[in-house]
Amino acid sequence: MNTLYTLLILAIAAGIIYGLYYMQKKHMTFTKRVLTALVAGILFGGALQLLLGTGSELITSSNTWISIIGSGYVRLLNMIVIPLVFVAISTSIVNQDASSLRKSALSIIVVLMLTTAISAGLGAGISTIFGLDSSEILAGEAETARGQALEETLDQFQSKSIPEQITEIIPRNVFYAMSGQGSSATLSVVFFAAFLGIATIGLRRKKPESAEAFTKFLNMLHDVVMRMVTLVLRFTPYGVFALLSRFVSTSNFSEISRLFEFVAASYVAIIIMFIIHLMILVLYKLNPVKYLKKASVPLSFAFSSRSSAGTLPLNVETQTDKFGVSNGVANLSASLGTSIGQNGCAGIYPGMLAVMIAVGTGVPMDAAFFIKLIIITAISSFGIAGVGGGATFAALTVLSSMGLPVGLVGLLIAIEPLIDMARTALNVSGSMVAGLVTAKRLGEIDMDTYNKDFEEIEEAV
What is the rounded distance in angstroms from the CA atom of residue 312 to the CA atom of residue 334? Predict the structure, then answer.
């Protein structure tokens, strides 16, 4: 009987997926299909949770098959992230003025660091306003086990200072970095691609023929990789549906309700930081309403996938095609934003945890405490992995640097995925804002494209 019910659930899921395909055949816009998939995934997963209950074997067996679509799509995105970063950065350098690139990179990093510092202060402030106290949270077996594991992991982090973590951005073995291994893999590939591009520019003075031939090869490789990106992005609606339905159907809402206050405080902080992003755009005379409409697809996918790195192709496509940002700035901001200055995971979350744990352990919180917290959080945001779980390692770095116990991070294991969804969307928004601000400051944006009414170009995806 269970097999029959599982087949029925899969048949309904297949019907929804066919509906998304039918929308594509009817040439409905990409954004409408993604948002429809998001809503359908929430409703479908919620219905399974309501009818079958948490931990149901039927939900588990059904998700085993549905996850082929969601997990498969995320793996496809992860597959092309490193090649995309490599060709995007290298071609950006060889195809534009070196001084312009330096200005772009510096501006992007400054914006990312400043917004991370703001988000850390915001997280600390919201935690104080809500009166969050780690001593009031009762730990279950799962949380206790997670806390013990994090305590054991702390030795690894204590052996590496923040300067050492920054130094690790320089890859010892570029092929190892290109395999995506390590928390700084993306930044290591950015470094190598930039180094390669600079070397190619220098070669033009001594061996112009070789430099020209290699530049053509890089541009050809860029075209091939971007075609791969386009092919993968066509599966976005199906991936969003599968990811959201699995998350909602397997969420333990009783555990979430137990830690509701922290969830509420987190979302308040994230929403306020989103508003600050919009205020920054207004400051640079960029319409925030158009930003929200055009950024809806990458933000929706970031929310459902919990992967800043996986959202990178959508991030670049949105900045270039919908915002009118130059290829160089868009690729640089999207790539750097996966591992530097993540406003949600490396800013708000460590800031909230630091205050909550300080209150629970009786650590005095004066002005010096908050200043130290903001500075450490901003600096330690270098090299944070842009995948699920990156926030935990960001928190480990900040808390250990502040001299606070890290085992209490395990208390939040039950609600980590729920908060991480919004945090990841904020991370991606921060990288896009950095790209837009930099492009506006340096005149690298087509304002006609940015201000154009929101109409999707279906051929792009």
Answer: 6
